[in-house]
């Protein structure tokens, strides 16, 4: 896995969301992990349409299943921050680290209990308007923005100074 914060998608269902997230990762310099099995073929036309020509430059790592992902994560000693509607801590009140992996669940069902148990922390995006959930790509974009704000953008991830 590459250095800097990463976005992990647990068994994503919707190719358009995944393509949009891959494009976001490519543009912001964030690595993306897809934990299988996905609910679609990763060569899906909708994935390519949403990701446009950014898919080639996305730092994508595919994991066959949760076990394969966990092996890589434990080898790299990365903290797992789960975004969940079941959490109570607002994502903006959490202190992120450059090595964090931000984990997002499946669009239709979130993540199973064993994934919740494996997370080092769980945060939520508050929805004072009373909604049940946000679109996955929007949630990932909000999280990425907050992580980059806290870590002071790309310079913090690469060690560059102005």
Characterize the structure shown.
The chain has 162 residues and is an alpha/beta fold. It has a single domain (6-158), classed as SPOUT methyltransferase, trefoil knot domain (Alpha/beta knot, 3-Layer(aba) Sandwich). The protein has helices at 15-28, 45-51, 66-76, 113-118, 136-150, 153-158; strands spanning 6-10, 31-35, 60-63, 80-83, 101-104, 121-123. The protein has a six-stranded parallel sheet with strand order 3-2-1-5-4-6. Strand 1 (6-10), helix 1 (15-28) and strand 2 form a beta-alpha-beta unit. The longest helix has 15 residues, at 136-150. It starts with 5 loop residues before the first strand and ends with a helix.
Task: Give keywords.
six-stranded parallel β-sheet; Alpha/beta knot; globular; alpha/beta
